[in-house]
Prior knowledge:
By secondary structure, the protein is mainly alpha-helical.
Amino acid sequence: MEESLALYAYIKKQFGEKDVDVRTYSPLTLAFIGDGVFDLIVRAYVVGRGNRAAHLLHKEKSTIVKAAAQARMADMLYDSFTPKEQEIYRRGKNAKPANIAKNASLTDYHKATGLEALCGYLFLTDETARLIELVRLGVELLGQ
């Protein structure tokens, strides 16, 4: 039986990728992967709440994944971030993206990017338990 690996470690192994120092990644690279990871975690949470039509699942997921909700979540979670997590969040929040979401304020978009950067960092460093803990707490704080 193959050893149990964290998801990112397993992906790297299967694709023959080399280890890279995640600290060298730009905050927007962290946000890029963090966006997908955050979306996947929320999708799993929504599906776990019961089998429904796909459009209803999407609607519920979208209330959590949109920039305004992520910005509120980041504000509520910030004090529970470790100092390192606060640093990663601030780097992501202060990054200058090439594009801005058309359905979000600039402030919300920056905060959402910070949260996604933190999610990306936690994923890439295989801190899956902490990543899930923060998203779960954030979903609870949003009242979802």
